[in-house]
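Researcher: If convenient, please comment on what follows.
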Amino acid sequence: MQTPELAFHQAGAAFFMTGFILFSAAGSAALLLGLLVLLQSAAPDLVGRAATGVRERPFISLGLGAASYAVFLGLAALGKAVPPAAGFGVAAFAGLSLFGLAATSENLGRRIAWNAGREGSRASNLAVGWLVFFAAACVPFVGWLLVLPWGLFSGIGGLFVGLRRSTPAPASPE
């Protein structure tokens, strides 16, 4: 039989753990937002090109991102035979994921600002997009299996699309 004191302590422990998990998630979101803003300020052209790639060619970006994920997964699978290949694959995927998240978040924030009839700065677009993206990615199963992979794959593919797209050549004088 459960005593009232034991039930009280168990309920308190459950509330404490729930609060701890929520504060940990909020802290992680804030730290990653800071990292994404720092990345955007360190490489604004690269993040801008990736966001443009996601905006202009979303399905091609998603396909390229999924293909690059398969390549990085293959490199990680080689880890037993060739450990440096696995290390390179994981490090490259982590680095490209940060650029991909920044590009996808900036694109999402720009669309939200446009729908609200406002024009925001790139940093505010990134912050708003990241908060919406993070909240959607935290939804069990839907966020984990649809939103998060879509954001990562589209952003990484947008990076490749943006790098491939060059500035137009100047017109030749005739």
Q: What stands out?
A: Helices lie at 4-42, 44-56, 58-77, 83-115, 122-137, 142-164.
